[in-house]
């Protein structure tokens, strides 16, 4: 007859000991759960416990591994802008910057508003083209045509020599933005939020993308991507060949100005006191720069080298190093350090990451800056025009026009062109600020003058595009 051996077993941890043992479990220290069972039944309890313990260890190890991978992916994105990426652009097409061409709103993707061509002295109006509504955006000029988006709902292609209409396209809505010339296509944006690629030869659409929100900005096209902001507080990157969205980035307010392209990053401003610096291929935030309460930024940034320049309300012109990165909690820490300074608990005011310099000018800077000859040019709502050293911010000259500046400056050769509330284009010497000449229209000028191929193009709120040339 087989004798069944009894043992004492802990139902909580599966530990077995002699049946005559007493007190708590020597393995887990439990007082309860200790029972006397045949050894076979006790061994089954032990095996079940060991399986559960192994599963728990494996699950714990998996959880730790997942956490480590998640932290690594988060760190790669936050610190080095790595990780999952949106679809790549299908081409590398960019807006033209060829000589005698003005291919997009500020000519260069860095928004400099500069051409090395000298501006013609306005001896003669070569031709005019008149629309039924004010013209608020500048044209693009390339090859044999001038391209203009109008407030009466059209995109038109005009003969560059005569101003005669070559073709027109019904946009389905008004627009005050500037088109972008990209190869055989023209990229246009309308206020109802439709972005389209039109064939330059006849104006027929190749693709259309409806963003679903108002668009006031002009497109910037670089390396196969259309960068454009909208009233839904987003910056969009669209594939220039297909119109498909590559990525979007959420800001804190409307995006109404063109972005500035800085290679690996694009710089966008929204209708508040911040500029956002975003990975151009990823759409991920890299740096946020704040100008402070009341210093609203409503203009585009301008890029040269490692610096981005922009103007703000309360008469400030700023230079920021766009290569920095805003890390988690950094802005929160800056906020409290600043408050500690004002409360007298810190001896020095903390310096915001990216700060290089800021300079004063009278009035609000409501128009995008121009950049040429290592000099930043700014105009204000009080009629002040100032030139600042791009490296140091030192004021080089200031000129009072006596009338509100309503267009972003254009620099053509050694001349700064300024559009004003009075409908006048004022030409200033880029080195001294001395006034050289004036060209009068019959309406306010909000579109930057464009210079290409020896002709100055001026779009006015009198509904007329003027093509102005020097005396033959």
TrEMBL record:
The chain crosses the membrane at residues 58-80. The keyword Transmembrane helix applies. InterPro entries: PQQ_b-propeller_rpt, PQQ_rpt_dom, Quinoprotein_ADH-like_sf, WD40/YVTN_repeat-like_dom_sf. Keywords: Membrane, Transmembrane, Transmembrane helix. SUPFAM superfamilies: Quinoprotein alcohol dehydrogenase-like. Residues 175-326, 355-470 form the Pyrrolo-quinoline quinone repeat domain. Pfam families: PQQ_2. This is Pyrrolo-quinoline quinone repeat domain-containing protein. It comes from Candidatus Entotheonella gemina.
């Amino acid at each position: 007859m087989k004798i069944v051996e009894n043992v004492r077993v802990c139902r909580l941890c599966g530990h077995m000991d002699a049946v005559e043992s007493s007190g708590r479990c020597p393995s887990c220290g439990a007082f309860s759960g200790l029972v006397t069972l045949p050894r076979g039944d006790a061994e089954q309890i032990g095996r079940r416990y060991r399986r559960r313990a192994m599963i728990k260890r494996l699950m714990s190890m998996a959880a730790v591994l997942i956490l480590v991978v998640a932290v690594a992916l988060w760190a790669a994105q936050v610190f080095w802008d790595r990780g999952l990426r949106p679809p790549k652009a299908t081409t590398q097409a960019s807006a033209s910057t060829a000589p005698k061409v003005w291919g997009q709103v500020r000519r260069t993707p860095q928004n400099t508003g500069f051409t090395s061509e000298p501006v013609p002295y306005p001896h003669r109006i070569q031709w005019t083209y008149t629309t039924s509504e004010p013209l608020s955006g500048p044209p693009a000029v390339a090859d044999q045509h001038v391209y203009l988006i109008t407030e009466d709902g059209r995109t038109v292609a005009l003969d560059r020599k005569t101003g005669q209409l070559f073709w027109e396209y019904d946009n389905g809505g008004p627009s005050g933005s500037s088109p972008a010339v990209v190869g055989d296509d023209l990229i246009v944006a309308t206020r109802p939020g439709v972005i389209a690629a039109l064939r330059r030869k006849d104006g027929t659409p190749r693709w259309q993308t409806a963003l679903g929100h108002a668009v006031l900005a002009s497109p910037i096209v670089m390396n196969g991507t259309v960068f454009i902001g909208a009233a839904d507080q987003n910056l969009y990157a669209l594939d220039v060949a297909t119109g498909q969205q590559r990525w979007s980035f959420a800001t804190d307010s409307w995006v109404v100005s063109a972005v500035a392209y800085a290679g690996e990053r694009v710089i966008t401003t929204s209708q508040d006191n911040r500029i956002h610096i975003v990975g151009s291929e990823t759409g991920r935030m890299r740096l946020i720069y704040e100008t402070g309460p009341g210093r609203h930024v409503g203009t585009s940034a301008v890029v040269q080298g490692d610096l981005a320049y922009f103007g703000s309300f309360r008469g400030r012109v700023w230079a920021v190093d766009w290569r920095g990165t805003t890390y988690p909690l950094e802005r929160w820490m800056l906020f409290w350090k600043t408050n500690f300074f004002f409360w007298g608990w810190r001896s020095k005011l903390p310096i915001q990451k990216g700060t290089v310099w800021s300079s004063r000018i009278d009035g609000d800077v409501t128009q995008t800056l121009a950049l040429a000859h290592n000099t930043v040019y700014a105009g204000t709502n009080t009629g002040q025009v100032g030139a600042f050293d791009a490296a140091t911010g030192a004021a080089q000259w200031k000129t009072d026009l006596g009338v509100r500046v309503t267009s972003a400056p254009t620099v053509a050769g050694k001349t700064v062109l300024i559009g004003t509330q009075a409908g006048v284009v004022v030409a200033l010497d880029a080195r001294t600020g001395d006034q050289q000449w004036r060209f009068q229209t019959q309406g306010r000028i909000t579109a930057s003058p464009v210079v290409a191929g020896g002709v100055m193009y001026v779009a006015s709120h009198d509904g007329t595009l003027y093509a102005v040339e020097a005396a033959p």
